[in-house]
């Protein structure tokens, strides 16, 4: 038994590093589950500092695309916001050399952010 202990420790260590560096989607969805709503999306936008690069609801920086415009454009082309959903899920999968960090968002966090962006775009259009 003692002979296999280092191997077991190594396996556990590898799993811990893998889940920390590049957590699988099922793990993110289990550990970062939220109730999707515009209010939760607003909290997540603040938590992840999205306005540090993006303009949302007329506020924020202009270093990256204005998300009000992106949401409006995607709404007309694709009501499911497929492109934006992919960006939020894994930015480097959409554009390998992007400056946008991967926040390792769960699917419910993504839905909450999309709901918030939609409400902000609708308010800006009024």
UniProtKB/TrEMBL annotation:
<keyword id="KW-0408">Iron</keyword>
<keyword id="KW-0349">Heme</keyword>
<keyword id="KW-1133">Transmembrane helix</keyword>
<feature type="domain" description="Cytochrome c">
    <location>
        <begin position="36"/>
        <end position="121"/>
    </location>
</feature>
<dbReference type="InterPro" id="IPR036909">
    <property type="entry name" value="Cyt_c-like_dom_sf"/>
</dbReference>
<keyword id="KW-0812">Transmembrane</keyword>
<keyword id="KW-0479">Metal-binding</keyword>
<feature type="transmembrane region" description="Helical">
    <location>
        <begin position="6"/>
        <end position="23"/>
    </location>
</feature>
<protein>
    <submittedName>
        <fullName>Nitric oxide reductase subunit C</fullName>
    </submittedName>
</protein>
<dbReference type="GO" id="GO:0046872">
    <property type="term" value="F:metal ion binding"/>
</dbReference>
<dbReference type="GO" id="GO:0009055">
    <property type="term" value="F:electron transfer activity"/>
</dbReference>
<dbReference type="GO" id="GO:0020037">
    <property type="term" value="F:heme binding"/>
</dbReference>
<keyword id="KW-0472">Membrane</keyword>
<dbReference type="InterPro" id="IPR009056">
    <property type="entry name" value="Cyt_c-like_dom"/>
</dbReference>
<dbReference type="Pfam" id="PF00034">
    <property type="entry name" value="Cytochrom_C"/>
</dbReference>
């Amino acid at each position: 038994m003692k002979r296999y202990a280092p191997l077991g420790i190594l396996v556990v260590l590898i799993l811990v590093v893998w889940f920390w560096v590049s957590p699988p989607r099922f793990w993110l969805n289990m550990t970062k589950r939220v109730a999707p709503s515009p209010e939760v999306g607003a909290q997540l936008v603040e938590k992840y500092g999205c306005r540090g690069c993006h303009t949302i609801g007329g506020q924020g920086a202009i270093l990256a695309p204005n998300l009000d415009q992106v949401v409006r454009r995607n709404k007309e082309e694709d009501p499911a916001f497929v492109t934006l959903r992919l960006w939020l899920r894994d930015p480097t999968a959409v554009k390998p050399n992007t400056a946008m960090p991967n926040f390792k968002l769960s699917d419910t966090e993504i839905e909450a952010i999309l709901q918030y962006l939609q409400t902000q775009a609708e308010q800006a259009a009024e």
